[in-house]
Amino acid sequence: MSVKTIKLNMSYEPLILTTAHPFGISYGTSSTSSNILVRLQFEGLTGLGEASPTRYHDETPETASSLFKLWAESDILGDDPFAIEAVLKRLDKSVSGNRSAKAAIDMALHDLVGKLLDRSLVDIFGFRDLPVPITDFTIGIDSAETVELKTKEALAVGYKHLKVKQGTDYDREIIDTIRGLAPDIPIRVDANGAWTVKEAISKAHYLAEQNVEFIEQPLPKYAPLSDWQVLRAASPLPIYADESVSTSIDVARLAGYVDGVVVKLAKTGGLAEARRVINTARANNFKIMFGCMIESSLGITAAAHLAPLVDHLDLDGALLLADDPFEGAVYDDGYLKVDYSLPGLGVRSRKQ
Length: 352
Ligand code: MG
Description:
Enolase-like, domain 1, binds magnesium ion, 36% helix
């Protein structure tokens, strides 16, 4: 008896994204993000995934592309798009880390499963009709004048919640500028690991006076647990870890040392591990924010499917773009709305 095997066919191409404004964080400023689009074809259907590699997650577009080349030329993806966990296990066995590359495969498989079943991923997860948090909009690091301009633009669009990047020698001026324009808008800040413990404690007191909600990644990625402990004990504001937490193992390690964690598909390696990270974070009493990289509506919409599981959303990657190549979750009065009538992720290319 012969068994017909239909292989998962993989292809990939660069996805160069341009931001509307240069986007500054404590590591540097950039106007483009070199992401990679992955397509998985099976039985005439195509699943889409996006990799958003960055150096501060120990990846580059080159490392991701070389893995995609390797995976496309091998049998590692197998012949069953429903075997998501088995595929991810094989990828993890073949190479450690490289999670934005793995996330692209995970996204494309989830998209394909939805398309094969002709159902939105929201129904496959069983998340329909669950409430989701408002998403914030990020004001990147810039001169005080440009921060003023960006804040005015953000308020004019109607963004209801701001995230403010910190990690400069004029952090207070940035917050003062924004608070001058928007005294009551909820603000959270992200230092991307730029502060020492002493600096973070002093800034936390100032930020608490400015009615900031919480501080994301004040300390460096590999700061010792004792530093987090000292900071948490002295800070009037909740402390969240982002760069220091990638997988569920990292979440367990930080239990008791921070108040919350930031989950991103580019760090977890996709939706499957993101759900494990969220469950581990819940079990350890953490607050959870779902964040993103500079990503098109493809990666953002994939993440938006997990929005019902978290406390805060920071899924503004596509809102920062000058020209989004994909159509997916739409910003509507504070919320990211996914079109649940579309199968899979619910994402379409704008270049049809
Ligand atoms: Mg962050």
